[in-house]
Amino acid sequence: MKNSNKVIFTLLFFLGAMEVNVSAIDWPAVVKKLGDAQLTAMSVQQPLPYSYNALEPYIDARTMEIHYSKHHATYTANMNKAAKGQAFESVPLLKIFTEVDKYPLALRNNGGGFYNHYLYWEIMKPQGGGLPSEMLQKAIQEDFQDFETFKAEFSKAALDRFGSGWAWLSVDEFVHLFVSFTSNPDNSFMRVIEKCNIAILCFDGCEHVYYLNYRNQDGYYV
Questions:
Q1: Of 78, 116, 93, 81, residue with least CA distance to 209
Q2: 167: Cβ–Cβ under 8 A, 6 or more apart, which residues?
Q3: Cβ-based neighbour number of residue 99 at 10 Å
Q4: Domain count, the chain
Q5: Which residue segment(s) compose the domain that 85 sits in?
Q6: Per residue in 208-221, pLDDT tens?
Q7: 84 CB contacts (<8 Å, ≥6 apart)?
Q8: 92/199 Cα distance (integer angstroms)
Q9: DSSP states of the chain as a string?
Q10: In this structure, what CATH number is given to the domain that contains residue 119?
Q11: pLDDT tens-digit profile of 45-81?
């Protein structure tokens, strides 16, 4: 599961390269199929892929510890509590997100918080940064002109929020990249965004992520 979103992204670009009519794809079915190999509504918290201090000086060890062992752990426990014994406890989370209005609010909130953080940990790494892969660079150039323009648009989505939420980079049904923002623990798989999409990058804009290090200067964190 570690590189699942990278695999999905690659798959979508191969579809585009082969000139498949992606607008005719049954996207709910695709997400369901992809979701079969993903996390379900009854899932354990995955181990953090690096130590608490691995992302310093950008994110300090104490913040990482609280974020992972308290916030993410609470989302995990409450998601499992909402799903335990229910008919949907083994349903893939990505499928739940695409039909989120059919499920209890507690599952939406805690399932969203659980999955968002799962992806958040996975897309970061020690000594990360720099330019993306050649394929992703090409896609960014096609949809944002260049990497600097993309960074500016993504940063704007993160900074223009009111309250807590997440910024996203996603692939839509026409195999184009776009930036979006969701409030609280919602994510871009949910129908709170008009475009059908698959997220490949997320940014947690909640205050607990940066306050110990940056106080109210969230622009430095972004």
A1: 116
A2: 154, 157, 158, 161, 179, 180, 181, 202, 203, 205
A3: 15
A4: 1
A5: 4-221
A6: 676 556 555 555 45
A7: 42
A8: 16
A9: -TTHHHHHHHHHHHHHHTT--GGGS-HHHHHHHHHTTS-BSS-PPPPPSS-TTTTTTTS-HHHHHHIIIIIIHHHHHHHHHHHTTSTTTTSBHHHHHHTGGGS-HHHHHHHHHHHHHHHHHHH--TT--S---HHHHHHHHHHHSSHHHHHHHHHHHHHS-SSSEEEEEEEETTS-EEEEEEETT--TTSTTSSS-EEEEEEEE--GGGTHHHHTT-HHHH-
A10: 3.55.40.20
A11: 989 999 999 999 888 899 999 999 999 999 999 999 9
Identify the residue whose tokens are 């995955």: 46
Residue 31 is encoded by which pair of tokens? 């997400």
Structure tokens at 114: 């659980």
The pair of structure tokens assigned to 100 is 């989120």
Cβ contacts of residue 113 below 8 Å, gap of 6+?
Answer: 71, 72, 75, 79, 185
CB 155 within 8 A of CB 219: no
Sign for the CA dihedral angle at 222, 133, 116, 173 comes to positive
Percent of the chain, pLDDT > 90? 32
Q: Whole-angstrom Cα distance, residue 183 to residue 97?
A: 14
